[in-house]
Amino acid sequence: MTSTSRIPRAKRATILDVAAAAGVSRQTVTRAMNDMPGIRQETRERVQELARELGYTPSRYARGLVQGAHTSVGLAIPDLTNPYFPAFASSVVEMATQRGWNVVMDDFGHGSSSALDAVARLAPQVDAVIGYLGPDSEAAQAMLGRRPAVVLDHPYMAAGRISFDYPHAARLALDHLLSRGCREIAYLDSGTKGSLTARGAAVVGVAADRGIGLIVAHSAEAAQPSRDAVQDLLSRHPRLDGLLAFNDLMAAGVLKALAGNGRSVPDDCAVIGMDGIPLGELVTPALTTLSMNLRDVGRAAVDLLEGLLSGTIVPGSPEADLTLRHDLVLRQSA
Amino acid sequence: MTSTSRIPRAKRATILDVAAAAGVSRQTVTRAMNDMPGIRQETRERVQELARELGYTPSRYARGLVQGAHTSVGLAIPDLTNPYFPAFASSVVEMATQRGWNVVMDDFGHGSSSALDAVARLAPQVDAVIGYLGPDSEAAQAMLGRRPAVVLDHPYMAAGRISFDYPHAARLALDHLLSRGCREIAYLDSGTKGSLTARGAAVVGVAADRGIGLIVAHSAEAAQPSRDAVQDLLSRHPRLDGLLAFNDLMAAGVLKALAGNGRSVPDDCAVIGMDGIPLGELVTPALTTLSMNLRDVGRAAVDLLEGLLSGTIVPGSPEADLTLRHDLVLRQSA
DNA sequence: ATGAAAGCGCTAACAG
DNA sequence: CTGTTAGCGCTTTCAT
After folding, report:
1. Which of B93, B282, B284 sits opposite A106 (nearest CB)?
2. Spatial distance between the Cα atoms of A195 and B14, rounded to a whole number of angstroms
3. What domains can be seen in chain A, in order of their start residue?
4. CA separation for the pair B17, B54 (Å, rounded)
5. Is B104 in CB contact (< 8 Å) with chain A?
6. Strand B327-329 and strand B288-291: pairing?
7. Does any strand D atom come closer than 7 Å to the Cβ of B27?
8. Which B-chain residues 202-241 have CB contacts (< 8 A) with chain A?
9. Does residue A39 lie within 7 Å of nucleic acid chain D, judged by its CB?
């Protein structure tokens, strides 16, 4: 066969097709399909049977149009590959499901796609967005117009915002390291040299407050790159005895690098991560970390969105602006 | 103010509201909103501005109704908390996004909700479902009617199926353990005593083929339970020197338990996991595992679904029935 | 460049 | 118990 045969995708059966086949009105079909009262059992079954045979499925658009939408929220996640985000996503999905919402997911981690691309894809589909939108937050909220965005972990105040109290976290971590007697402390930030993340800025700030000299290193936000970064760090600062990492994933890489260099943790060098993902309990030694309960974050985001959607909470108001705090969970690495 | 002012959630602005406000017809609004030709630039801008002010967003239902749906697929995942699933989900989301589909996600891990519940929630929203549906697979496909389900890792043949060649995987693992000189080998299955998973059955079968006595233990599908299970296993089989785990997450627990009991891995006891998730590289020692490339699985699922949806692949046919094989990735634990 | 008419597929409200 | 009548909000013709 040289020319592909184009079977035009059979036009979907409509309610009228079923009605005709059953010799009833479309209303009767509706009643049969939706288990509504006012229809004889026998008729109902016959219609349902016919519907199955014809492969009839009510159009969600027609139904939504006439019934008035049920809420669907877009979830924009940078990278499902970092265990932090699925944990968050899982919580959002659970909370949303409880409310009968459904969540459309977009993961913009791969390819060249950005948070804004994700929101652009999501926009025609959803009534609101929850996401780690970073620098695209403002543009995203603009794109959504009146529909609320709940932005996590970024300073821009969209309809709703959930921030983390990094200075608090930094104090917890640095003071712990200090009280352990660490003298040469490094912070491994995500990103590239020269720029600091919000977390990084907080850590640097607290170090300044405490009057300690802080070594700042950088690596991409994954385990392997941070391994390499520590390798390099160690060569420049052989007496390093305390390290705080941007997140747990990177901390796991740090642990590997330290072990590979014969440094024992926490005795030679104490390590603290950030996030509190389950991975931290599985690495060796178990990771001391600044823990954020992801279920709480998800719940907060969904609660906030619910308020925004129902009008209980005014977009951009102080009630729409939440700040959450990390806890220091002591395990073995520090 | 003692009584909250109840601003009844303003009925959403429709295209007619915008048209009226702008003193134009609704077509002109459509043209302005969709950047269509045949409209003066000035008019376009004025209408867009008005639309923003009124908070007008075209109804996705009305639009879908008239334009004929774009595909949306439901993704039903047992437990976003096991790193295996997000990795898969991420891949599905990516592949789907490339095709302009959008994916509605449902995680039925928490609460008492089942795969069937998830599909029930998804059904009115989607054109197809991809998921780890387990024993609910048949009911799920029935619920979807003509809309295809692609079922992973379960024997029921829905419209599409993706299976894993567990006998192959079991051979790889057991033969490797044997060739290392292991004499007392255990398999830690997911689930409870008395029942075997598909993986378990394959391992037991291969062990029988090879004429070796296999110790079978059980635990829930998470790290901590498997830790406990190994604790128990060790007390009953102190000479255990090889262990294959149902998945990497459980294997991570195994590693912890072994370390806690002073057994060195792999010398005292070799350990092999299954899945090949990134976690395996982060534990100590790095996990030897039966690896399945999750990106391949996601791609396969989406490709298959695309065929099913376009009519290229006949539901239930051999082309709709894929089997994927694991590779043995040697790291340090065996 | 703009407007008028028609209709997508469904369900709610009312008849019969 | 079943059928008829009206739209839901939008984009397509087709006119002007």
Report:
1. B93
2. 45
3. 15-58 (1.10.260.40), 70-164+294-326 (3.40.50.2300), 166-291 (3.40.50.2300)
4. 8
5. yes
6. antiparallel
7. yes
8. 223
9. yes
B-chain residues near A111 (CB < 8 A): 94
B102 lies within 8 A of chain A by CB = yes
Question: Which amino acid residue lies closest to nucleotide C2, measuring CA to C1'?
Answer: B28
AA letter at B279: L
Find the CB nearest A103 among B89, B104, B310: B104
DSSP string, B48-105: HHHHHHHT----HHHHHHHH----EEEEEES-TTSTHHHHHHHHHHHHHHHTT-EEEE
Contact A242, A180 (CB under 8 A): yes
First to last CA, chain A: 69
A7 reaches B (C-beta below 8 A):
yes
Half-sphere exposure of A126 (CA within 13 A, CB side): 33
Taking only the tens of pLDDT, chain A with its 334 residues reads 333 333 334 567 899 999 988 899 899 999 999 888 888 888 899 999 999 989 899 999 999 988 877 899 999 999 888 899 999 999 999 999 999 999 999 999 877 789 999 999 999 999 999 999 999 999 999 999 999 999 999 999 999 999 999 999 999 999 999 999 999 999 999 999 999 999 999 999 999 999 999 999 999 999 999 999 999 999 999 999 999 999 999 999 999 999 999 999 999 999 999 999 999 999 999 999 999 999 999 999 999 999 999 999 999 999 999 999 999 999 999 9
Residue type, A186: A
Q: Which residues of A touch B250 (CB under 8 A)?
A: none
Q: Is the dihedral of CA A36, B140, A83, B251 positive or negative?
A: positive
Burial degree of B35 (CB within 10 A; 0-12, 13-18, 19+): exposed
Cβ neighbours of residue A40 under 8 Å, at least 6 residues apart? none
